[in-house]
């Protein structure tokens, strides 16, 4: 990756590459590099346009700096997750009691019947 390379290192690599390639082939390789760089820019520009088209007007509202993975500290994320308050239950007890009463009136299927030790296990002829 080029993230750790400095200008001096890139310059040394360029000089070594120029010496290895030679003066006859150097213009052709430089032209190829220029075309590759231009195509890469067009590709990135097109990808950005496609993302912008697909996201619509929300694209401008996104703060892309907050999504930088280098800013995430796993220790902080775990600490915040552990210190968060427990989620508040959204189902009321009365609604839960009504649902239990409704299911109690329906007969149990063969698979839901309780099994007592020493008795043969339930057999579902339609499942086999």
Can you give a write-up of this model?
With 128 residues, this protein is mainly alpha-helical. It has a domain at 7-79. The chain has four helices and no strands. It has helices at 7-21, 26-55, 74-83, 93-104. The chain is elongated, with a radius of gyration of 33 Å. The mean pLDDT is 77.
Strand content: under 5%
This entry's quaternary arrangement is: single chain
The average pLDDT score comes to 77
* Biggest sheet layout: none
Q: Kindly provide the radius of gyration, computed on alpha-carbon positions and rounded to a whole number of angstroms.
A: 33 Å
Backbone structural class: mainly alpha
User: Order of SSEs, N→C?
Assistant: HHHH
Keywords for this structure?
128 residues, mainly alpha, 4 helices
Describe the SSE topology.
Elements: H1 7-21, H2 26-55, H3 74-83, H4 93-104
Structure summarized in a few sentences:
The protein is mainly alpha-helical and 128 residues long. It has four helices and no strands. The chain is elongated and about 90 Å long.
